[in-house]
Amino acid sequence: MRSQVLRFKEQEIAAASSARRANRVIVVCATCRLQLCSFEDRIEVKGSHDHTFSNPVGRIFPLRCFSRAAGCQQVGLPTQEFTWFPGCSWTLLHCRGCVSHLGWHYSGPLNFDGLITFRVKDMEVKNV
Ligand SMILES: [Zn+2]
């Protein structure tokens, strides 16, 4: 009986791991669903993937950090004004699909894209 349970568990684990191989997670624009980057592009900046900041007028922005979000385009000239990451300059990031403001590209001592949590979504897709 016990070995049957164990065998069943092993089959479950094997099935779950093959399902993980069959699917992957991408990060998309919440508005137009354009793929921005892959879930594997997540990085930690200053010890965390997720951050929360408020801008000078008190608007709160939860932010997720990615090495690069190729589905975004940088808009404007880099500035350090009110930067949330000391020493880093930022430019706006707009969606290449629908031009929504999705976050900020940071450059300088750190180079990464910060995407606004509620303007992007994780989406599971079949591997091809
Ligand atoms: Zn979009």
Short description:
With 128 residues, the chain is an alpha+beta fold.
List the SSEs and their pairings.
Elements: H1 2-22, E1 23-29, E2 35-38, E3 50-54, E4 60-66, E5 72-79, E6 89-95, E7 101-107, E8 112-116, E9 120-126
Antiparallel strand pairs: 1-2, 1-9, 3-4, 4-8, 5-6, 6-7, 7-8
- Alpha-carbon distance between the two ends: 39 Å
Structural class: alpha+beta
Report the total helices. Answer: 1
Helix percentage: 10-25%
Count of the domains: 1
Task: Please give the order of strands in the largest beta sheet.
Answer: 3-4-8-7-6-5
CATH superfamily caption: Peptide methionine sulfoxide reductase
Low-confidence stretches: none
Walkthrough of the structure:
The longest helix has 21 residues, at 2-22. It is globular, with a radius of gyration of 19 Å. The protein has one helix at residues 2-22, and strands at 23-29, 35-38, 50-54, 60-66, 72-79, 89-95, 101-107, 112-116, 120-126. The protein is built from one helix and nine strands; from the N terminus they run αβββββββββ. It has 128 residues and is α+β, with helices and mostly antiparallel strands. The strands form two sheets. The protein has a six-stranded antiparallel beta sheet with strand order 3-4-8-7-6-5, with no helix packed on it. 16% of the residues lie in helices and 45% in strands. It has one domain (25-126): Metal Binding Protein, Guanine Nucleotide Exchange Factor, Chain A (Beta Complex). The mean pLDDT is 89. The site of zinc ion has 8 residues, from loops.
